[in-house]
């Protein structure tokens, strides 16, 4: 589904549900990009759904191939070059979450450790940190141990690129779709429908249109 | 095809994790490898007891034994020589852990096996006359001590002992008879499933040594 189809579908639903509904390109830009970020959060595992002592959401990105398939357009690989003294490597500019971290020499796992367990991992006499590297998340970036790890290979989830419905104004001042200035969504059609349902909820709230919100909620809760 | 350590450890990890372990798996290969030695000791002990019950003779099946070659011999005291074992053998019977110890010269000549004693026998042996053409010794932890007036440090030692194989080499063959591998698996399963059932302190670093959830 391209951005124009998404915009037309949303305009159609808004127009059907509220009289004289109009969704400007700027409104569309706001809601569709917020919605795709929400959807990404949903795929990564919303922590609001966690239960005490069981930090697992209903949908988790590692769960099934279908969900991996949804998020696949946002999975990128990069080779990190940590500073040999501090062991810190900056986050990629489009970084959202780590998918996996490996040694560059084959697929040997570099394990995530949170700060309160660093001492246990770092001083393990069974899994020596020199042979079983670990990393922490810090504000400066990834902190690797041992600090002289050299290189690390990371598979990560990037922020979704903005969806832009580009347009030019015709002689009547009406916006007309312009593919050259548009930015297409990276998602598959089924995922775009999920994103649109989230965007519609925001539109419904903005327009105080209960039917739009209700329609959106029905899709989210029951399915398409 | 003989099962090697790496394959068996993968088998255990897949059992514990219900499939291929994720990259966050904390039951690591090294950890399983370490506990595996304890599990093999447990299975060997079981075999010893089983043989006693069935045959009336306490013995451990040959399948549990491994021969380690070219072990270093060093001088410990005057006329006392120390052989360093690759691991501490299981404490089965009076001195069943190490079955055979021989010395080998550079030109390939191998001595008669050392007569291995219990610690009590080692005490009695002091002051006794030498046995012709026979070395005597005793195992203590990860060492075998041999009493001899011959300078044994010029030789290397070959030792046959109860061991699952070379634990430092994951590609080495796992020396456990298949019928007793079940007991090794049982031991490891109980050990690791118990560790997985333990409550986890999810709020590390809060200064409280207790579990607030789970």
Kindly summarize this structure in a few lines.
The complex is a heterodimer of chains A (224) and B (214). By secondary structure, chain A is an alpha+beta fold.
Can you offer a commentary on this structure?
The complex is a heterodimer of chains A (224) and B (214). Chain A has six helices and nine strands. By secondary structure, chain A is of the alpha+beta class. A four-stranded mixed beta sheet of chain A has the order 2-6-5-4. Chain B has one domain. Chain B contains four helices and eight strands. Chain B has helices at residues 5-16, 29-55, 119-125, 178-197, and strands at residues 65-71, 73-77, 80-84, 98-104, 115-117, 136-140, 143-147, 156-162. Chain B has a five-stranded mixed beta sheet. In chain B, strands 1-8-4 form a three-stranded antiparallel beta sheet, with no helix packed on it. The longest helix of chain B has 27 residues, at 29-55. The N and C termini of chain B lie far apart (43 Å). The model of chain B has no long low-confidence stretch (mean pLDDT 88). The A-B interface holds A 52-53, 55, 62, 100-101, 109, 111-112, 114-117, 126-127, 132 and B 22-24, 28, 30-31, 34, 202-206, 213-214.
């Amino acid at each position: 589904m391209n951005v124009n189809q998404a915009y037309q579908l949303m305009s159609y639903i808004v127009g059907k549900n509220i009289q004289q509904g109009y969704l400007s390109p700027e409104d569309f830009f706001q809601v569709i990009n917020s919605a795709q970020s929400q959807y990404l959060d949903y795929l990564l595992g919303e922590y609001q759904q966690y239960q005490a002592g069981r930090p697992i959401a209903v949908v988790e990105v590692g769960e099934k191939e279908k969900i991996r398939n949804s998020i696949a357009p946002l999975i990128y690989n990069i080779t990190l070059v940590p500073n040999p003294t501090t062991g810190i490597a900056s986050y990629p500019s489009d970084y959202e979450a780590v998918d996996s971290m490996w040694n560059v020499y084959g697929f040997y796992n570099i394990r995530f450790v949170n700060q309160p367990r660093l001492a246990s991992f770092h001083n393990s006499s069974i899994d020596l940190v020199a042979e079983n590297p670990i990393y922490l998340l810090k504000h400066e970036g990834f902190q690797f141990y041992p600090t002289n790890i050299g290189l690390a290979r990371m598979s990560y989830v990037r922020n979704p690129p903005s969806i832009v419905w580009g347009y030019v104004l015709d002689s009547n001042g009406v916006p007309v779709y312009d593919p050259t200035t548009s930015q297409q969504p990276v998602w598959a059609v089924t995922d775009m429908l999920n994103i649109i349902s989230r965007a519609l909820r925001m539109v419904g709230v903005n327009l105080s249109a209960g039917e739009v919100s209700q329609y959106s909620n029905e899709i989210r809760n029951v399915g398409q | 095809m003989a099962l090697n350590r790496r394959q068996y450890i993968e088998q255990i990890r897949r059992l514990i994790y219900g499939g291929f372990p994720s990259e966050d798996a904390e039951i690591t290969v090294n950890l399983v490898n370490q506990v595996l030695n304890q599990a093999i000791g447990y299975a060997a002990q079981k075999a010893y007891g089983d043989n006693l019950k069935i045959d009336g003779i306490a013995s451990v099946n040959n399948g549990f034994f491994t021969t380690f070659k070219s072990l270093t011999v060093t001088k410990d005291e005057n006329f006392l020589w120390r052989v360093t074992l690759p691991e501490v053998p299981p404490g089965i019977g009076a001195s069943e852990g190490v079955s055979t110890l021989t010395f080998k010269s550079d030109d390939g000549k191998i001595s008669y096996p050392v007569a291995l004693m219990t610690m009590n026998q080692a005490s009695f042996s002091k002051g006794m006359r030498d046995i012709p053409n026979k070395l005597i010794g005793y195992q203590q932890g990860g060492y075998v001590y041999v009493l001899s007036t011959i300078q044994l440090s010029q030789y290397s030692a070959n030792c046959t002992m109860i061991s699952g194989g070379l634990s430092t080499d994951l590609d080495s063959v796992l020396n456990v008879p298949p019928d007793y591998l079940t007991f090794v698996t049982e031991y490891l399963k109980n050990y690791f499933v118990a560790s997985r059932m333990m409550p986890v302190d999810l709020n590390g670093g809060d200064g409280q040594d207790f579990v607030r959830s789970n």
